[in-house]
Amino acid sequence: MADIELVDTSLRDGNQCLWAAMGIDTAKCLTVAPILDEVGYRAIDFTTSTHMGVAVRFKQEDPWERIRLMAEAMPRTPLQFMSTGFRFISWETASPEFMALAFRTLARNGIRRFCLADPMNDADSNITCARMVKQGGGEYVIAALVFTLSPIHDDAHYAACAHKLASSPDVDALYIKDPGGLLSPKRAATLIPAIKAVIGSKPLELHAHCTIGLAESTYLEAADLGISALQCAAGALGDGISNPPAERIVSNLKSLGHTVRIDTDALAKVGSYFTRIAEAEGLPMGSPHGFDAEYLQHQLPGGMVGTMRRHLSESRLAHLEGAVVAELAQVRRELGWPIVMTPFAQMVLTQAVMNVTSGKRYDVIPDEVIRYAIGRFGRPNVPIDPLVMARIESLPRTRELRQEPHMASLDALRAGLGAQLSDEEFLLRATMPAGQVDAMRAAGPAQRRYHPGAPPILSLLRNVTARRYLSHVLVEKPGFRLELRGRSVPTATEI
C-alpha cells in the first residue's frame, strides 16, 4: 500500500474552474491560510500569472502583496506558481531575460514551488525555465506532462518527454497534468508505469479534472501504480469540472489501505470554509459529472463548452453545434494536434466556428491561429497540414504578423516605464494597461479578513435601509448587536 501526499488546488484551479477565477481575493486567502497550513499538504497550488492579472484588473488588489502575506501566514506549506511557457500575464511571448526576472521576483516574494506546464509539451522549454527558476532562488520545480488524446500522444511520447525532463538537475519532480479529465484508469495503467520507468527516483504526481467522471477512479488506480501525490480541491471547489474532492479521495484511499498523512479535521474545516463562501456569495458548487463520450472527440474544457453553446445560441446558430463539434476534431488534426488547453483551446474552437459559419473552410483565419502557425507559441507537435499552411502563407495578414515586433528588451521597457519602478510594479506595468495598475495602487492595501456570514448580513441591511420610511434598524442575536439610526448602511469593514 502506498503513502500518498495531497496538493491543494482550491485557491487556484478550483477557483478558476468553478468560480471563473473571480471568487477568491486576498481576504479569503488570508482567512483560511492558518487552517490550510495545518492540513499537511505537500504544497498549495496558489496562483498563475493569469490569476495575478485578475487580482489587478477585477479586484484592484496587489498580487505581490497577496503572495507575501500568504507566504508569511503559511510558513510550513510551499506556495506554488504555475507557469505556462514563455509568458507572464500577457499572452505575448516573453524574452528569456523577462521570464528570468519574473521567476526571480516570484521567489523573492514567497513562491517556493514552481510548476512548469508548457502547452506544447516542449521539454527543452521547460528545462530552460527550470534553470531560470533555480538560478532565481526557486526551491522546487515540478514539470508537467500535459495529457491529451491523439494519434501522436501515446505512452512513448510521454516517456520520451519525461526522460528528458528527469535528466535535468533543475527538475525535482514531474506530474501528469490532465486538464480535460481524459485519463482513464485503463490508460493510467500503461502510462504511469511507462513514465516511472524512465524518471528514476524523481516523484510523479497526478492532476486531473472530473469533467467526464473519470478522475476519481483514475486517482485510486494511480495510487496503486506509484504516484506520490494527488492534486485535489476541497469543499465546494472540488468536483464538477474542477479537480477530485479531497475529502472523498482521502476517505477512499484510506479504505483501500493507503496512507494519507494529513490532518483530516483541518481538511474538513478547509472544505467547510469554501462551501460557506459559495453559500454566502451565491457561487457554484461542484457536483459529480457522469461520463460523456462525445467529450473524447472535441476535448474542450468544460467552461468552453458552455461558452460555445451560448455564442451559437446568441447568433441563432444552435442547430450547428453538432457540425462545430465535428469540425473541432478536423481542425485540431490539421493544425498538428495541439493540446486542447489555453490558449490552443480558444484557437481551435474559434477556427472551427468560423469554418462552419462562413460557408468555406479557412476563408477567415484569426490572428492567433496565424501566430500559432508561424511559431509564436512554440513548435507544433507535428507539421500543420500542407494545404492549410499554404492558405495561411497566402494571406497578407501573415506577412504583417511575421514583422510584428516581439516584446522589447528589459532595458527598453524600463526606459519607457520608469527606471525607478520596483521589479514588482515594473512586471505589472510591462504586461497590463497602465490604468488598471493605477487603479490597483489607488485602492490601497487589500482587506485582510473575510467572514462568510458578512455577505448575507450586508444584503439584509441594504434591503432594509433602502426603505426610506425606516429611521431606526436593530439587528441583534447572542454575541452580536448592530444598531443604525438615521445613517447609511455600513461597509463590510465597519461590521
Please summarize what this structure is.
The chain is α/β, with parallel strands linked by helices and 495 residues long.
What is the architecture of the largest domain at the second tier of CATH?
A: Alpha-Beta Barrel
Distance between the termini: 50 Å
List the uncertain runs: 489-495
Main sheet properties: 8 strands, parallel, barrel
Across the major sheet, the strand order is 1-2-3-4-5-6-7-8
Task: Please identify the structural class as seen in this structure.
Answer: alpha/beta
CATH homologous superfamily grouping of the largest domain: Aldolase class I
**Helical percent range?**
40-55%
Sum up the overall morphology in one term.
globular
What is Rg? Answer: 24 Å
Number of DSSP helices? 22
- Percentage of residues in strands: 5-15%
CATH structural fold name of the largest domain = TIM Barrel
Count the strands? 11
Please tell me the overall pLDDT: 91
Oligomer: single chain
Q: Supply the CATH class of the largest domain.
A: Alpha Beta
Number of domains: 3
Properties at a glance:
alpha/beta, TIM Barrel, Cyclin A, domain 1, 22 helices, 11 strands, disordered C terminus
Describe the protein.
With 495 residues, the protein is α/β, with parallel strands linked by helices. The model is unreliable at 489-495 (pLDDT under 50). The chain is 48% helix and 12% strand. α2 (26-39) packs antiparallel against α11, α6 (123-135) runs parallel beside α7 (155-166) and α14 (321-334) packs across α15 (344-357). It has an 8-stranded parallel barrel with strand order 1-2-3-4-5-6-7-8, surrounded by 6 helices. α5 (96-109) links the parallel β3 (79-83) and β4 (113-116).
